[in-house]
Amino acid sequence: MDSADGIEWVNAGQPTLEGKSLLDLKDVNGKRVMKEYLDAALAQRKAWVDYAWYKPGSNTPTGKHTYVRKAVFKDKTYVLGAGFYD
Fold this sequence. Notes:
This protein is mostly beta strands. It is 14% helix and 40% strand. Strand 2 (46-54) and strand 3 form a beta hairpin.
């Protein structure tokens, strides 16, 4: 779960990212992943975002597909996402 300003609040796969701004996080091809999440979710309310990422335990990037959705709670906007690898 991310706030609309790019702060990663929860990340079960990479807990070291929690509490950090990921606005400049890029995949291996230079795609700004968090910016893609936010732009898609805020503009469309829900969307799929595709990018190249590393599967846990692998040193080879692969395709990853993440479903993102805008959520508002107590006047604060969040973007929630869940993804899977090819």
